[in-house]
Amino acid sequence: MIDPILPTYNRVNLVFERGEGAWLFTRDGERYLDFTAGIAVNVLGHAHPHLVAALTEQAGKLWHLSNVFRIEGGERLAARLTQATFADTMFFTNSGAEALECAIKMARKYHAANGAPERYRIITFEGAFHGRTLATIAAGGNPKYMEGFGPAMDGFDQVPFGDIEAVKAAIGPRTGAILVEPVQGEGGVRALSWSQLRALRALCDETGLLLILDEVQCGVGRTGKFFAHEWAGITPDIMAVAKGIGGGFPVGACLAKEEAAKGMTAGTHGSTYGGNPLAMSVANAVLDVVLAEGFMEQVQATSARLKQKLAELKDRHPAVIAEIRGEGLLLGLRTHVPNTDLVAAMRAEGMLAPTASENVVRLLPPLNIGDAEIDAAFTRLDAACARLENAMKPEAVKGAAA
Ligand SMILES: *Cc1c(COP(=O)(O)O)cnc(C)c1O
């Protein structure tokens, strides 16, 4: 008999009752160190007092309003985000995929407004993940996510990740934009080099393409800058944001420069829920914390400490850990064992983390963890690796150590 919830997820049989910071608690009081953080969503951990206060205060006043009315919280959030980023304007959504949908529509509309509607094609990259709607599975190009869902939406040309020559070769008269994640999350925690990102920007400038960045996972402080592209010293024309921006409340946004947004006039796009007062109150509260003086420096310092611990872990367990990769607190452990085995062993030791492609285990802690959580993570990872080594043939462990 089918589960009353559509069985599209293989769910872990754990029921959490509450969370506090980087910790999740089951009903029988077991606690888990949460380095999944709702897949890079809970940037301030669980039940952050400032977010709880913002949400509960707004809940007593006004939850939802149609976008046919002015929404003060949204105006405030947009003003703050334009101030803190490259963007002049933005559209609020409820998810990352919707932010990407808006970005794709905006890029097409831009060229149409310039009298070149044939420039609707967008260059994307292998290993990309942009969401699960029909347009975003076509953009991501992962056959696993497309199979059986009919003809793929037209308009995406995929090239190997980071291959600038392949991008050049793929640009034709119908190309209108390049869409890329500065750091791929699902794709295996793979970062573009900042020089590659600069090369893509230069290529867009030369050929009149729009540069669309998907910072749904790597944005909002995850790499130690507010947005990852800041490391490269470039700006996109359009950027999709979600996950961390709501700190756990469903919020997304499509940010853009004025020029790129010029086709998106009244009536061209919409959302019933996007940017409603409840969502905006929480997103503004997230910004209160992440835009505060010193927050990004703190993330960078935390990242450096965690990376150092992970290097020690790799030295201690060469039969399990093959490589440490990633930026800021978007980190990955590529493993010699199946990544799902390490995730299961970590769970047995009281720590949660998601997998990614290329046999990687992702570590996506809340951005505000401290030394106690880093130490707890090391202890649990160390024990999980030891568990896996104990289950291996002794020669395999010794061989890797030699
Ligand atoms: C999660 C994610 C998305 C999709 O976001 P949803 O909120 O699940 O629709 C898009 N792009 C990237 C890079 C993501 O990590």
Automatic annotation (TrEMBL):
Keywords: Amino-acid biosynthesis, Aminotransferase, Arginine biosynthesis, Cytoplasm, Pyridoxal phosphate, Transferase. The modification N6-(pyridoxal phosphate)lysine is found at K243. GO terms for biological process: L-arginine biosynthetic process. GO terms for cellular component: cytoplasm. Pathway: Amino-acid biosynthesis; L-arginine biosynthesis; N(2)-acetyl-L-ornithine from L-glutamate: step 4/4. PROSITE patterns: AA_TRANSFER_CLASS_3. Pyridoxal 5'-phosphate binds at G96, A97, F129, D214, E215, V216, Q217, T272. Homodimer. Belongs to the class-III pyridoxal-phosphate-dependent aminotransferase family. ArgD subfamily. This is Acetylornithine aminotransferase. It comes from Ancylobacter pratisalsi.
